[in-house]
Amino acid sequence: TTSISIGNPAQPFRAIVDITQSNLFVPSWNCTNDSYEAEYCLPHLMYNSTVSSTYQPDLTPARLHYYGVYTWGNLSRDTVHIDGVSVAGQEFQEATMWRPAYLIDWDEQYDSVLGLARFHATNTYDDFNVTSPLENMVQQKVLERNVFALRHPRTDDEEGELILGGVDDAFRNSLITLPLINDPPDGDDSNFIPFASAGWQVAVSSFSLDSYRDKGPLEIALPRYIAVLTNGYTNMMFPSHIAHQIAEHLHWADWLDDFSCEERHRFPNVTFTLGTQQHRLMLSPWQYMHEVVDPEGHKRCILPFNPLYEDSHHPDYILLGAAFFAGLYAEFDLDKQSI
Question: Cystine bridges: which residues (predicted)?
């Protein structure tokens, strides 16, 4: 998460950084007017429009869904502040109802989402479509350059980094450049289209795993495939026939199996060939395997490979989620249309 604030004087919020989200939302102080709704809103920082001198009412009803959290409320406008950058008149949902789905409890760790989608991401549930903070930054010319940089942490104990309008020159000599592809897929698959429509797509031509146990290297050609990049989804997703090849190579019978992190060194490196220049990017199991803590407090590691849902609608796509970005530094350049 990162810190953002809204209004003048500034009201702080904890926001997830999501490159495939567009709509901005925050809990409203008006949520406390109803004692039942207040139970869900009180764990969060809440926006109070009555104390902001730059608040502009809209009052258009709006609903939203974000990873198991459903919100209802109305649209409002105010100044949004992010790391020294101010966006005037940003439209957002002021949520007077905030409802996590059954068994969802991680919503108390954040209050909002800073959406950095290049295009407005298609979401079949949201009934409003506003200009994202990133789009407004570009339109209002408040960035030194129309670029942002993101370094994603590998574990919950590490801190990531977000740079708006600039980059970290320490990585200048180790970067590869991937031109973006503008090819949003058709369909209404709610598990895939929101990511694929956000504008962060690159060419991918192959995927491989090094030798593992009794099996030699696994090489999978991906002719004319497109990789959708997102940090808003944890795993990597492949068409079903490829996902099952990966599982067979790893002797992995159950998608829900986890492993002792002490065994992580036994798993193979994975390599993606990306972009028109055929750049090979290798990830070690210390990068792509997630660390989680089980109910007994033991650290466990999880493989991030899953089959795509409804992959017959988009057979030539793969999705590279947070497991791909873990430990990597990435620059997103809107003017050059590249990562």
Answer: 31-41, 261-301
